[in-house]
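EI: anyone free to look at a 502-residue chain?
SC: sure, send it
EI:
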Amino acid sequence: MAKLRVAAYARVSSSSEDQLNSFGAQNRNYTDYITSQENWSLVDVYADEGITGTSAEKRKDFQRMLADCRRGKIDRILVKSISRFARNTKECLEAVRELKALGVSVFFEEQNIDTGLVSSETMTAIFASLAQKESESISTNLRWSIQKRMQKGTFVPSTMAFGYERKQGKIVIHTEQAVFVYQIFFRYLCGENTQEIAAWLNQQAADNPVLADRTWTYKAIVRILKNEKYIGNSLWQKTYRTDTWPRKERPNRGEQEQYYAEDTHPSIIEKWAFEKAQELLRQRANSAKTVSQKSPLQSKLICGNCGGFLRRKTINKRNYRSCRTHERDSAACPILQIQESTIEETFCRLFYKLKHDSSILSQMLSSLQLIRNRRTLWSPDIIELNKKISDVTSQVQMLATLNQQSLVDPDIFISKNNELTEQLRAIKLEKERLMDNDSDELIHQTQELIESLECGPEFLPYFDAELFGELVDKVIVESNERLKFRLRNGLELSETIERTVR
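SC: here you go
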């Protein structure tokens, strides 16, 4: 009879030494327990460390485990408790239901729940709900504590702005990064624009590891130029996290109180230089706004019949777009002139639909990532890493078997097991890095579209030229009743023109 293919999932939500020791112990215990069962074979111990459980997307090994289940590699999963599996009721039930449909059962040890039993889903929902409430309570208490420190001006964030680092609970200057912060302000005040500075930094990144861990864009440069951190001050709660689960980060447009404190840490930039940069940013923004107001649709509109661009014309102080072919010969192209405000209103409706039904882009992103992963999994580098993972896993299983039979000294077992566990983690991280580096431009563009939609307002009361530029590549006038919007990632969506009485 075929052995039951069993895996285990472990997670600790903190990077502290105590928690990581517990993390290593869970790995060893699951390996020992599964290999000791005569009719079981160990697939893998999937483990995430120092990662929150409120969102499954951030847990790489959790996602890898689900992927292996979909490929038919696992029959049963062992988890210490529901709170280790998920603290989000919705994601917990979705994962359990999908695994059950795939024929994979999950056993939660603390609650003694086996999802292979028909009646277990109700119990799973109850315990997952309790786990979510616990997480909500912890999060609420933590936010209260953070706000009190913000009010006192003593708050030190966990993540630092470029140019700073955290040492012994204090914000200190990162000397190597600070050099480039100074260069960014210096070049901007000397007349370079943000795109030119970003291009220069990307060139420097090839030879400098300080810059190599990120891709520099003009938006990143603007964020640095606007950041009060560089004159030693702090504005907290520029963003906030939603109350709905899983929590998502949103820009703070007045939804939450902000806190400003001066001299919270050493400055990198002189105050006069920072203020001069702000003044220059405002001047250039106003200049760009004036240009965009002249023609936000310039070079965006294409005639769906003849393929030509639509030119602008003004009649009775109203702006229209007209097909040049139609103007020369009305019989050659039937597309009549269309008012710019009609195009803008149609875009506002498309934005609302995308904002409130993001499944189109999210499904597209999932499909693209699935295609990429399937392609990447068969690359020579990934195949070689998979062989190494298999080899080290076999050594771990063999070591566990020898330990059960008392054929290896306990100290040697712990030392060797820790060494192999570290090797396995390093190989998996390398595999993850290779797969991430293989990401397609199309995936990146789709992710940027989703981000723009999430950061945008709930609806557009009027046309937003900046959002239009971020989302739309071209507008194809299919007819005088229908427009087709080609998004930045190439996806084309048609929208009917609604006639309004003026």
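EI: Confidence is low (pLDDT under 50) at residues 15-20.
SC: 👍
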